[in-house]
Specification:
The protein has helices at 4-17, 30-36, 40-49, 58-78, 85-97, 99-108, 121-127, 133-151, 153-171. By secondary structure, the protein is mostly helical.
Length: 174
């Protein structure tokens, strides 16, 4: 018999198997990506009723934010026409890592995980199924951390380059 959790993990596998992610994972690796898609409201409600506890994406978001910022700063440093720290920070980094900008890149890449993310009933009753830009960006950062922890820095860099940096470079004037 297939459990609800197994059905959900199948949805996660299908979601991440598609571009721009193109990721495949085994049964142990899926847990990190499931955590990346789990809002605090769901984790709290789930943990009250289940012996095996799950975590929300908050810890992953913390790490993913740092990985995203590091890779964006590394790329900014490599761009020869960005000569000083002010240009690299104000003109490039902020255009890549601000939550509203991350949401633009997600939309540009047609990445919509609202049907895949786990939200608790308390969140849904308060806000419906609407995700704020902050939540979309937080989940993206958690995904970056999950990719980093599961597949390494090169995988995280590829995702950031494909999803954030390529669209940014197309619009950026150097």
């Amino acid at each position: 018999m297939v459990t609800g959790l197994e059905m959900y993990e199948r949805r996660i596998r299908e979601f991440f198997a598609k571009p721009p992610f193109n990721l495949r994972f085994d049964n142990e690796q899926i847990v990190t990506f499931r955590t990346a898609m789990t809002h605090t409201s769901f984790a709290e409600e789930y943990n009250v009723n289940h012996e095996v506890k799950i975590q929300s994406y908050e810890r992953l978001e913390f790490l993913g934010d740092a990985v995203l910022e590091f890779i964006v700063c590394d790329e900014a440093y490599k761009i020869g026409s960005l000569k000083d720290e002010g240009q690299m920070t104000n003109n490039f980094k902020q255009a890549a890592v601000a939550n509203a900008k991350i949401c633009e890149y997600l939309e540009f890449n047609k990445i919509d995980y609202e049907d895949v993310a786990l939200l608790g009933r308390s969140f849904r009753s308060e806000k419906g199924d609407r995700f704020s830009d902050d939540m979309r960006a937080d989940i993206f950062e958690a995904i970056i951390a999950a990719a980093y922890l599961t597949f390494g820095i090169d995988c995280a860099r590829r995702l950031i380059q494909d999803i954030v940096l390529l669209p940014l470079m197309e619009r950026f004037e150097f």
